[in-house]
Structure formats: C-alpha cells, structure tokens
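2024-03-11 09:14:02 INFO worker-7 job=invfold-0412 stage=load source=structure_tokens
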C-alpha cells in the first residue's frame, strides 16, 4: 500500500506531503489546480522523464518520495535480489532527487538505478494514466491483457515458446552462414588448416607470456640491475672494509667480550646477533638473485623471439594466450565440420526440423491455454461491462492464427465488441468511443484485480466521457476494486467522489508573485462542500449541500450492501 507521498519544489508544488489510506482514495480539485501533477510526481519517482522546466522557479533541485508498506513475499525477494535489506515492518521508501543533468534514486536509503526502481515498482503499484485506454486500440495490448489473465501456468508455457523460438532462429542463422559451394568450402578448409597449424606449432602454455615479459624486462635492464646489485652486495657484505657486514661483525665481537658481565648486555648481544644473521641472509639471497640475472645474447634472442611469436598470435587470434588456445579449438571444430560438410549440414537441417517441431508443439500448447482463458475472460468482461452500463453489450476475445511465429507464439488476439442489439462484433478501434474505451479499461482492471497481487492501483481521470447513471456504475466498480486493493483516483465527477473512503482536495493559491499547489485531506463536512462544488454549485446553499448529502448517502448505502 502507498502510505504517503512527499513532493518538494516540483512545478507549482513547494512542499506537499499526503498520507493515503486503505480502500478508495479520491482526489478532486478545480481544473488547472494540478491534479494530474500529483500523479505525475509518482511517475517521476518511479523513473518517469524529468525536464529541467519541471523545477519550481528558483529551486536548484526537486524531490519526490514514496513510502510503501508491503508484506508481499515477491517484494522481499526482489529487494534481496537487488542487494537491498528489507525492513522488518515491510516499509519500502523510494525517493528521487532531480536537478539539471543529475538524478539520484534511493530505496530504503541505498542508492540504486532507475532500472532497479522500475523492477521494484512493478510489484508495488499500477498506474492507469489519462490516455492509457487508447492502448486498447492496438491488438498487441489485447494479447498482453489476455496473457496477464492466464494465471500461474502461463509463464512456463510462454518461456518454452520463447526458448524454442530462439533455438530455431539460431539454427536458421547457422545454416545460412554455413551455406557455401564446393570452391568456397575448400578455401575455408585450407584457411582453417593453416590457422590451426600455426596455433598448434606454437605449443602455447597459459601464462607463459607474462613470465617471458618479466624475463625480457630484466634482460633489457640487465646492465643497470647488475651494477646496482653489485654495489648493494659490496656495501652489505664482509669483503669490503667499510661494508655493513664487516662493521657488524666487529661490533658483535666487541659486545661478546662483555656480554657475560650483565644480563641486559646479553640481551643486546642477542639483538645484534639477529641483525647480523638477517644481513647475512640478505647477502646470500642477493648473490643468488645476481646469479639468476646472468644471461648471454642467445638467451635474450630466444626470449625476444618467443615473445614476438606470442604477440603475433595474440594480435591475430585473441588478447590472451587462453584466447588463442580457445581459437585453436574452434578452428579444429570448424575444420572437422568442413571435412564432413555434407553430414554437418544434414545434422543442422535435422536439428532445425526437430526444433521447429518443438516450437510448433509449444505454440499449440500456448494457444490452447490462451483460447481456454479467452472464453472465461470474455464472459467476465461482459459481466463487468454490463455493470458499467453497457446494457446490450456483446464481447468476445478472438484467438486466431497469425501468418507467422514470433517469440510470443503464433496467436493473433483481438478484442471484439458490439454495443447495440443486432450489430455484428467488431474491433474496438471500429466501435468504441473515448468514454467507452475508458469504461472497457476499467472493466479489464476490475477483472484482473482478482488475480493481480499489486497492492496499489492509480486511476487518473478514468471517468473521461461519462456522466449520469454510467458515472454511478463506474463509481461502484471502483469501490469493488477497492475492496481488494488500495485505489487512488483523480476525478471531476461527484458520483465517483461520493464513494470515497478518504477524500483529498488539490488547491491552487497565489501569494504575492508565487503560485502554490497543495493537497489536503477533507473531513466529512468539507467533503460535502467539495461534492456540492462538483455538482455545479458555486455557492454552498442548503439545497446544494442537501444534494451532496443525498449523493453521499447513496454511496454509503452501496458500500454497506457491498
């Protein structure tokens, strides 16, 4: 559930915080007050497009913060998948700070990406925008709605189709790329033989290039290294009069003559003896290193030649020795295929035929699932449409076969409707008006709400193009949806506003040279006044308030009966 919305410095909103409740949350206000801006701010928090001119005048940044509460296991799993720690109380806080050229998204205080916010929000909220019903004019949307209705079995069946389709496409591509005449095959075979021989002759060892580069570096700098090592050996050894080793030996002999006279002198002797041993160890290691640095020109030439060979192969076949070895294995496999070209092509064709059979079987299974659910969904949508004042409606979901197969199968799905007796069923695009499309979308949302696990639904002016009795039916349907979900609805119709469990008004006011949009919750008395305004009364007369009261009483009666 969406508990609260906090907006700061966005367009006409200076700073606004709204706390929503369960059930049906209604938002009303004068035209131009900024009703859609409120829902737009929710979209912004969830990754909607931000333009610089959306910032409030004089502000450097804007902030939108949404606080959800959800105990849905899927939400917890998604948080863990995004490496975010779920809160014990189920709260999910999504925020977005916006400024020119920079956006910062956070979930529960942790910085995240816009994509991660989108993935998470899909489990928390569903927003029906003002013009979303227009998407019903596209057949692609019809399939999406039917697929969403198909239940728990659908994802596995649909995934089987996508996997089989991908395999068929890959095999076809491989066949096309492998097609060649005899002359081309011979050229390819000769090239593969040459490249494989070149790689195999090198007798590559993983990591040898790193070791050779180390040796080469030492050899190139050999003279400088040898001179420095010899000087260090001289000054730390015992052969040179002023060397550290000689001095330490004399100091140790001097101390040994008196060390038995006092316990502390014995300790000092031990320390100096340890230093003498360490220096002797260093000297031996240094001498060993110097002997390893001895090389002749033949050694240098061999290392340089080997490095040139390896670098040539890496430049031609891969960035590392491992890449070159893998390339050699690929050339060996390719050579084997070319040497047995006809058998290889025949195997590809057999594999493709088997994959196509598997794809058709998967498509058939998916199609049966869609057709079975299409019949049930159509009946439920018809019932919902009748309740929304489509009194003589006929509704059908046609699932036919398209001309080809895609990753979604071979089905062609289309919603067909007839709103007048005797008229044949036709596509929505040929029949439905804007107001009818809006009600059809509400019917779809209502039916899907029974299967939808998303807690919060937002409807931005779902009442487009309706009035009178139809508006009451829409109001009742929204209340039905609000029994299972939290619903936020922006409306200009009193019939819908009367059904509110919580009523908010969006107001615009001017103070000196500033214009501010704010949102506040209404008590029952203030709600009556807002209903009277929506009914067309500029003055809150007793008659206007009485009409509002009657409308509210009718809505409450429906709620009690529901």
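2024-03-11 09:14:09 INFO worker-7 stage=emit residues=562
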């Amino acid at each position: 559930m969406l508990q609260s919305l906090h907006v700061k410095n966005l367009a006409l909103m200076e700073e606004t915080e709204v706390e929503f409740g369960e059930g049906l949350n209604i938002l009303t206000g004068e035209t131009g007050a900024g009703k859609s801006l409120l829902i737009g701010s929710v979209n912004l928090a969830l990754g909607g497009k931000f333009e610089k001119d959306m910032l409030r005048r004089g502000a450097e940044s804007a902030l939108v913060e949404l606080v959800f509460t959800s105990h849905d296991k899927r939400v917890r799993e998604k948080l863990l998948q995004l490496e975010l720690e779920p809160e014990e109380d189920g709260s999910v806080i999504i925020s977005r700070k916006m400024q020119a050229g920079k956006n910062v998204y956070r979930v529960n205080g942790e910085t995240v990406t816009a994509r991660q916010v989108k993935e998470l929000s899909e489990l928390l909220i569903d927003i029906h925008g003002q013009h979303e019903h227009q998407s019903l004019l596209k057949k692609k949307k019809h399939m999406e709605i039917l697929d969403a209705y198909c239940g728990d079995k659908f994802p596995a069946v649909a995934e089987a189709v996508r996997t089989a389709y991908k395999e068929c496409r890959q095999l076809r591509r491989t066949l096309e790329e492998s097609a060649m005449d005899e002359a081309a095959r011979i050229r390819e075979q000769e090239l593969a033989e040459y490249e494989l021989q070149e790689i195999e002759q090198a007798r590559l060892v993983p990591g040898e290039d790193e070791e050779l580069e180390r040796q080469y570096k030492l050899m190139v700098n050999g003279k400088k290294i040898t001179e420095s090592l010899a000087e260090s050996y001289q000054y730390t050894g015992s052969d040179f009069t002023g060397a550290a080793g000689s001095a330490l030996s004399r100091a140790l002999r001097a101390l040994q003559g008196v060390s038995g006279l006092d316990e502390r002198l014995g300790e000092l002797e031990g320390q100096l003896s340890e230093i003498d041993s360490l220096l002797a160890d260093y000297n031996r290691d240094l001498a060993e290193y110097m002997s390893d640095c001895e090389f002749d020109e033949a050694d240098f030439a061999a290392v340089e030649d080997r490095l040139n060979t390896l670098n040539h192969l890496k430049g031609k076949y891969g960035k590392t020795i491992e890449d070159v070895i893998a390339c050699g294995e690929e050339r060996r496999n390719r050579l084997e295929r070319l040497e047995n070209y006809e058998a290889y092509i025949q195997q590809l064709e057999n594999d493709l035929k088997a994959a196509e059979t598997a794809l058709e079987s998967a498509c058939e299974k998916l199609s049966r699932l869609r057709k079975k659910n299409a019949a049930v969904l159509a009946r439920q949508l018809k019932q919902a449409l009748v309740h929304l004042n489509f009194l003589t409606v006929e509704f059908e979901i046609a699932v036919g076969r398209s001309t080809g197969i895609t990753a979604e199968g071979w089905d062609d799905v289309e919603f067909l409707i007839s709103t007048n007796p005797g008229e044949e069923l036709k596509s929505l695009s040929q029949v439905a008006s804007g107001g009818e499309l809006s009600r059809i979308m509400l019917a779809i949302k209502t039916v899907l709400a029974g299967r939808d696990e998303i807690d919060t639904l937002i409807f931005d002016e779902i009442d487009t193009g309706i009035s009178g009795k139809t508006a009451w039916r829409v109001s009742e349907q929204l209340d039905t949806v609000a029994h299972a979900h939290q619903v936020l609805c922006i409306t200009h119709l009193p019939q819908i506003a009367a059904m509110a469990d919580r009523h908010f008004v969006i107001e615009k006011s001017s103070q000196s040279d500033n214009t501010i949009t704010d949102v506040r919750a209404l008590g029952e008395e203030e709600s009556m006044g807002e209903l009277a305004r929506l009914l067309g009364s500029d003055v809150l007369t007793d008659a206007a308030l009485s009409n509002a009261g009657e409308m509210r009483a009718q809505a409450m009666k429906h709620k009690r009966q529901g």
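2024-03-11 09:14:09 INFO worker-7 stage=report msg="The two ends are 22 Å apart (CA to CA)."
2024-03-11 09:14:10 INFO worker-7 job finished
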